[in-house]
Amino acid sequence: MTVLVINSGSSSIKYQLVDPSSGESIAVGLVERIGESTSHLEHEYDGETYELHERIADHGEGLRLVIDMFNEHGPNLEEAGVQAVGHRVVQGGKYFDKAVIIDDDVQARIEELAPLAPLHNPANLKGIEVARELFDVPNVAVFDTAFFQALPRESATYALDREVAEKYQIRRYGAHGTSHMFVSQKVSELEGRDDLKQIVMHLGNGASVSAVKEGKAVDTSMGLTPLEGLMMGTRTGDIDPAAVFHLARVGGMSIDEIDTLFNKKSGLKGLAGDNDMRAVNQLAADGDDNALEALEVYVHRLLHYIGAYSAVMGGLDVLTFTAGVGENDNLTRAAVIKRLEPFGIKLDEEKNAQRSKEPRVISTEDSTVKVMIVPTNEELSIAQQAVALL
Ligand code: ADP
């Protein structure tokens, strides 16, 4: 039994054939630059990579070519027993607090929510439309916001004029919910406890922190959009909104220019000139002061949220790192945990330096809080949620 997981973007389709019970990723692939003359399809199965370089007009053609790849190079989708197609959907707004089987009504709601995620929901819908046409199994939508849909009102609400906020549906929706849920559940499972106070730090190119108490999300750093919160690869994270007024009035910048500046040219890239943490670490090791400052800001932001969420939850049992930086960068982990020593949180340097793909504890036996690394797996989570619904 398997699930085909699809992450459809504006000009790309990422897919993975997953066995939800073993967690095995059977085949993975990607269609890129859809609609351009340089479109490209890459399909990996059984240790081999198969590529196609030709113009792929639209998502429909892209997904048909993906099915051709499965037919030609394997695995055979019928023999693989595909039970469902699971779609990653970015914005579920006020409607969805869990995964749902997609029907016309669900599709209409995802479309209705497009103004809240103008780059993502329409792209997610393209994948859904084509998959509903091409596959004879249930299609399931798994929302990035669902884990945070039931945030307590004090953390979901912005102190904005009530009427304006309601009219434009401005609240904290959060993002990366599938990852925060997967990781916090894995921690509970490993600890054999469902009463934990947890902080999960998803540090990838996009980065977010969540506070999870007794299995429920009670706070998260991303807000109306994924721009709020931590400093990220190319995003500012928290910034005084008056910087927007200032750049418009004094800098003469348009709203679109400021949007691009905040989302694409800021964060590590804006401060250190590169959005890849490995490159920034290297620059810092070579004594580049901009890179050193970028890392200081990165860690400072994390400390802010760890302090805030410990207070919000009235304590902390487990602090977990995940995603590209969180799973791989022992330097960032050490820089954060060292600063928490006054609270009795202690890093085991040797465990922190070890590389592994397995979930593990990196704090010392006598640390007041357990520090863990839990590799995230959003595709597996989507596949498991899809199967649970069937
Ligand atoms: P996303 O899914 O948000 O694109 P990932 O979770 O894959 O991102 O994380 C990507 C980031 O992880 C890269 O930009 C890079 O900065 C960081 N990363 C990956 N490996 C390492 C490493 N060994 N050391 C430091 N950072 C790393």
UniProtKB/TrEMBL annotation:
Main location: cytoplasm
Recorded GO MF terms: acetate kinase activity
Subunit (UniProt): Homodimer.
Cofactor note: Mg(2+). Can also accept Mn(2+).
Keyword flag Oxidoreductase: no
Organism the protein comes from: Trueperella bonasi
Name of the encoding gene: ackA
EC number(s) given by UniProt: 2.7.2.1
Protein name: Acetate kinase
